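FW: tagging you since you asked about this chain on Friday. Here's the raw sequence from the shared folder, copied in full. Didn't touch anything.
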Amino acid sequence: MLRRKYPLIMLIIALIILPAVIFAENAKTPNPAGGAKIIVEKKSGSADYKEPLPPVLAITPREIDLGMIGPDEKVSGMFSFKNRGSGIMRWSTKGPEGWLAVEQQSISGKIEDEPDSLRIEIHYLPQENQPEDVKPKGFAGTMEMKLEADGEVMICRKEMKAGMHRDAIKVSSGGGQRTIFLAYKIVSGQESARLHLNPLRIDAGSHPAGKTFSKTIRLTNSGKEMLKWRVAQQKTKAMETSISARKGRYVSFVNEEIRGSGNYAVSGNLKETMELTGNWSEQNGYPLSPGGGNAVKYHFNGTGIIIYFTTYPDEGNLAIYIDERPVNSHEWVSEQTEKGELPGAEELEDGPHTLTIVNKEGRIELEGVKITGRDIMKGNPGWVTITPHSGTTTQEIDYINIALNTAGLAPGYYMDNVVFTSNGGDATVEVFVEILSDSQPKIVDVYRFVKEFDYLMTANPQAETKKLTQNGYAKEGIAFRLFAPDTPGTTSFYRWYNPQLKDHYYHHDPKGGGKSLQGYVFEGAIGNIATSRLTNTKPLYRWYRARSGHNFYTTDPKGEAAAKKGYLFDGITGYVK
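HL: got it, structure written out here
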């Protein structure tokens, strides 16, 4: 009888003791809140259970326009792959349709936490490298396409005619199949005229409606034969499919004031939104990072951002962050100068964000960014005029004037395209402008000129040309921006000059704000300044050099190294844009 009951007794004891042991073990491992660690398995069908998101392949951009390619030239572009679902997703492609794979038959990669990328380079093989077999009549030559991803390289070739081409490349993955496109124009050796426009994107800035202003582009011919060009009607369909014509507000990083100086400085209209760290040089007015260790921060409002850049012949590595979070990267090994664009972020929450670009290695020039998430409008018919409308060019530079008439335009962002056609290829210039609301405070640029320790600041340098020239002042560019007269919350900002000390002094108090004005001559107001901090304004700091009696003004809290020149901090003069 006892033997029959023994298994039953042992089972009852196990059911009593085992839960107590498990509870005691869990109690030894506290959770972050300090209590016992309780393991809860979420099963399918429970209220807390969430099905993992299926993988979804997203590719940006979907099409890249590589422009023209001639004999022995290379053009390249890069696609970014992202998994909008969860888990690890693998992808592969067999290359462009109709091309012959020379080495491996496909190329593949995988997407984990970070996006993956596919770099594609097209090389118009030089004559000595062309296959020996006879080409079909009318064909320009052999094109070689190199696809690179995750250390793999796939090479394809195809005999092609001169003219426009658009290749489709299918990409397969666990997150679906996508098709990407490459557009380019093959120019044979006989078509030696070559059209080049600079810049291809124009940021005309922010202006109130009713103004007419202009910008200039440079048209050159890199070939030997005469280039015949003209401005054509807009090609709406081509514009919609072009990668460069994606809707967004373009912001240029160019600073015309320091072009050719070799040292880059942020232009006045970007001082509120752009910060540089490291050793930046200047290339045609744009910021150039000559090596690793340089970074730029750009503050923007929108749902996404695209970065435009130029890389130089070497190896490079670029990292992209949004709101201090890594989102993308770009590596390059190039034998030539290449222009490119890189998605910094997309599908962000609409609002303020910070883009950080860190150049880890290699030379890179930053052209600007395009901010998405804002409606872009079309101007009135005829609001953009081009002069001259056509011409011929050999080796000279043609300067094309693009005039914008903003009369009748409502506040907002506007964009238009200027399409050039020629016997040396076609090109499109994008033009962007922001029209300000009448309710927005009107602002004026204040330019700084210097001679030794004397700093002359003016909002109208044209009216003071004689004074600036005769006294040998050197232009330093836009120092800050003041408000227009009668702007609420602002008051006049006055200027005085002491001819004995050769010093300019500035203050919003017509009596000098407590400073002795003996020896100073009143020169009037240069604009309006805020005496208390308004939205989107920053302090204007004054520094004083007691040894010589000179004053210096800057929005840089570090004084632009004024302390090294013997200046001492002398407080905040007011608040400026």
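FW: Confidence is low (pLDDT under 50) at residues 20-42, 235-245.
HL: agreed, and Residues 2-28 form the longest helix (27 residues).
FW: great, closing this out.
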